[in-house]
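Hi everyone, sorry if this is the wrong subforum. Our group has a chain we'd like a structural model of before ordering constructs, and none of us has done structure prediction before. Sequence below.
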Amino acid sequence: MRKTRMVVLALLLVAPGFAQTQTRKPAPGAGVTVVDLTHNLSEKSPNWEGTEKSPFEAKQLGRLDQDGYFSRAICLPEHFSTHIDAPAHFASGAWTVDQIPASRLVAPLVVIDVRAQVAGNPDYLVTPGDVAAWEKLHGRIPAGAVVMAFTGWDSRWNSMKDYRNADAKGTMHFPGFAPETAKLLVTERHVVGLGIDTLSIDYGPSPDYPAHRFVLAQNVYQLENVTNLGAVPPAGATLVVGAAKLEGGSGGPVRLLALVRGR
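Answer:
Right subforum, don't worry. Here is the predicted structure as tokens:
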């Protein structure tokens, strides 16, 4: 979603591969595979407005050859690349990022695969029927889960034109959650978060973002621009949401990790 608040961070050390989307096998005997569901964060990331100049900026502060250390200052919108929408993003008085209980940032992960539906309709809305089909195979969605819509849209990430998929009038076209599905998941399945591998949990042509308005008003967070959902099972994984504890933040970049047992 489009945002104006900017975040400035000083990075004292960036480990190689920090933001790479990857799957890492566990050490022998560990029994858990860690799957990265995060896009790299850089000026190459598609932005909501579709501007040629990225809202992401990085300024070097320290050089190893001159200063003995490497660091940068970065500036970016709170809602950019793989990120979290805090409830306060659309709901007055709701939680900001720092107020989301830590217990809600580690949760059972549910992945609903709607790639086949999206292939024939870029404006596809995830329906209550899609939820019912998932539950027929895997059982009732557990309370406290994070539900992700796996649309396959992340395959377009390297082309901002294809990822935004705007028509001649500038209206974007990509899939999202139907408002009634979001309401079902929040009020009847008691999820703590919704996520999707597109720019928004509301579909591209939405003029008023009804899913956002309902979900966030219930203190349920959202995760957008997720990737690599095909590397995790539909049920049984645990999601870790690595959100910076940004005081007063409406959102912010996240590192999303899925823990998959038995691989």
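For your construct planning: The two ends are 35 Å apart (CA to CA). Residues 128-138 form the longest helix (11 residues).
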